Amino acid sequence: MSQEAPIPHGLPKERDAGPFDPPRDITRLREARPVSPMAFPDGHQGWIVTGYDAVRQLMADTRFSSRQDIGVLHVPYEIPGLPVVTEPSPVEPGLFIAMDPPDHTRLRTKLTGAFTVKRMKMLEEHIVDIAERQLDHMARLTPPVDLVKEFALPLPSLVICELLGVPYGDREQFQVNSVRFLNKELPFDEKIAAYTEMNAYLSELVTRKRAAPGEDILSDLARHDDLAIEELTGIAFLLLLAGHETTANMLGLGTFALLEHPEQLAELRADPDLMPGAVEELMRYLSVVDIVYRYAAEDLELGGETIGKGSSVVVSMLAANRDPRRFDNPDTLDIRRKARGHLSFGHGVHQCLGQQLARVEMRAGFEGLLRRFPTLRLAVPADEVKLRTNMQIYGVHELPVTWTETAR
Ligand code: HEM
Q: Where does this protein have compositionally biased stretches of type Basic and acidic residues (predicted)?
């Protein structure tokens, strides 16, 4: 392993290799030193992990603690002036994504039944209906339209609202606050303000559900007497945020990627049976949740390096999913490849709870969109599409599209 690779200072800000590819410095780093020290702007030294095997091993090892930050709130190198994380941060009630076992296990097990493959299969037809209705709406508009606003964001928002029992009429409040919360460039206090506002809203909602539970996931949770209101609120926050921002960005960026790969798009249109595999490949290729954080709870060996106790560790899923040691021609979008084994839903105890739901939504969403809009195309040059390089979940801010005819 080369010790000569220069130590990176923070993460690159731009996608200099194109909208879908890892920044060039990240690719170079993976080739030179897949587990590498990284200097943080505030002066402390942590690590960045970019190789597939190392990322997988790390995610499977809970000694790489998730108590590195307050959920996805505390990003040490991007927000100058924040204290360096050298010991486990306090646990925010309910945010089990930022907990370790056994706290994590206690909360996650209360939800596993709600998101099983079987439950999602039962919901599939309903999700297809929701997608069709949203596409009916889009077909009535005069193009060009913004695909994110008219389709990619509403579809998962409608679905998660219904599942959780959050009124869709309140979407403005949680969509705006989610975007503020996930914006890496906003000052810390503004992110906290967004978090606090959303929590105030959700705390009221779960309090009402505890008093008069209905037929939805948050009501089912509210029936558990051993969950405090603060915990219910935190869980609701996590599910609502993870449930709409992630899939929306996969639908938006995924459509952009397909439109930029017309031969792949044509194959997919010609044979819809390719859809499940295409969704996995888009997940691998795009890795919209690129960066996650961990914290070494003890001295740990990884990829031939020793990561000292108390180190912050930045993990790049995108780099791992483009590792040529794991996937042939990794930078090629190939909807026929076997992309399962990608790390885009994470790995280990925190592996995405909503992955089956996300898959059903993506299959229904892409299938419906391609069928109903056979002439769909970008309404602006590709290099004018606004990329979410400033956000913790990657994607496009808007995707202006147009078409000449629609179909049923
Ligand atoms: C966890 C990605 C959709 C709920 C995760 C993690 C990733 C991820 C990478 C692991 C984070 C870590 O280890 O620190 C995605 C992507 C999605 C998606 C790319 C869409 C394409 C969803 C949906 C839900 C959801 C629809 C709705 C319920 C969660 C939850 C966790 C999680 C609750 C935390 C699990 C835990 O800590 O045990 N997701 N996700 N996700 N995701 Fe997703």
A: 11-26
Q: How far is the CA of 199 from the centre of ligand 1 (A)?
A: 19
Examine residue 19 and state whether it is found in any structural domain, yes or no: no
- The verdict on residue 16 lying in a domain is no
Residue 20 in contact with ligand 1 by CB distance below 6 A = no
Q: Can you give the CATH number for the domain in which 33 is found?
A: 1.10.630.10
Q: Which residues pair with 37 in a beta bridge?
A: 47
Any atom of ligand 1 within 6 Å of the Cβ of 182: no
Does ligand 1 have an atom closer than 6 angstroms to the CB of 131? no
Task: Identify whether the C-beta of residue 397 lies closer than 8 Å to the C-beta of residue 384.
Answer: no
Atom of ligand 1 nearest to the CA of 108: 38
Closest atom of ligand 1 to 98 CA is 37
Give the helix/strand (H/E) hosting 278. Answer: helix 275-286
Q: ipTM of this complex > 0.95?
A: yes
Quick check: is 407 in a domain? no
Atom nearest to 99 CA in ligand 1: 37
**What's the domain count of the chain?**
1
Residue range(s) defining the domain that contains residue 31: 24-402
Q: What is the pLDDT of residues 325-371, one digit of tens each?
A: 999 999 999 999 999 999 999 999 999 999 999 999 999 999 999 99
Taking phi over 0 as left and psi of -120 to 50 as alpha, with beta for the rest, 165 belongs to: left
Looking at per-residue pLDDT, the higher value among 159 and 119 belongs to 159
Q: Which atom of ligand 1 is nearest to the CA of 347?
A: 13
From 95, 352, 393, give the residue whose CB has the most ligand 1 atoms within 8 Å, as the site to mutate: 352
User: Please, which pLDDT band fits residue 2 given cuts at 50, 70 and 90?
Assistant: very low
Taking the model in full, what pTM does it have?
0.96
